[in-house]
Amino acid sequence: MPTVNLQELMEEQKSLHDVPAVAVGSSVAGARTTATRGTAEVTAESCFRIASLTKVFTSAALVRVLRDNGVPLGVPVIELLPGLAPDWRADKSLTIEQILGQVSGLRESVDAATVKALGEGDGALLEAARLVVRAGNEREPGERWSYYNGNYFLAGSILAALSGTTFESALEGALLDRWGLERTGFKTPAASVAGWKGSTELPLLGYPRTRRPSGGLWSSVSELLAAGEELLADRALLEEIRRPRTRSDDPMAYGLGWALGPSGQMYLNGRLPGYRAAMAVIPDRDHVSVALANQETALPALARLLSHIQQPLTGDDIAKAVNDFAA
Q: Has keyword Repressor (predicted)?
């Protein structure tokens, strides 16, 4: 099987030379290789904010809990969140599969500031979901792909409802604990890496509970590789997640929480002030790759890096696709 030198590939990305901390890793059939660079001392265990890569975990956890409870993905969302019925202005046929696949057609009117203002209480996420469905639909469910975090406010609320607890506890019990991910979570870990904007170090701030299903996790290269390996090992879960939910005329092919590449790659990126994260999985080659940086502007280089890592396996240049993904 073709191999690549991660350290050499990283050094070739000149725009990464000014990034304080970069960590990258790959796993092929469970055999891992990692590399780091930068002025900050980081390892494959150091934790970065992974932003929209959180959707990978929310989606996988919800699909697993649905499976465990015998609930099909085609069940209408309103049946699992009946408390929202009095405020429901969205299409009542909207399914779990459609929100996870970003083809809900929901009106994208609920922004980050609005849901942050709902506070940090246990019921705040459900209130964010209420705002999402109260806004109604712009188009028929399934008609067109469009990236909207509101879909995942609904997904997180369903996961919490099915588990009878908070979203955070549900995610931990359904997935993080089962996959042995001890350093992946919403609390700022001891091994956290501070984000930077240009030459300024940013303070370590909390992340609103209402937005956590779409982007609140901390994780590391080693734990993201482990998550990819666990996903590859659960073939039933993997096949459900990698199946496209988009149409041929959509802006991209998309499964449940993942964009889909020309050779079956699953990929995405995430961004928050001070951080960039990107990840790719190639199910048919038993491959996982991850790149993390503590500079938001690092994405083009991280995308090229991931593309170079997987290119010997697929022959595809996916750098533009990873860079352009709408996280």
A: no
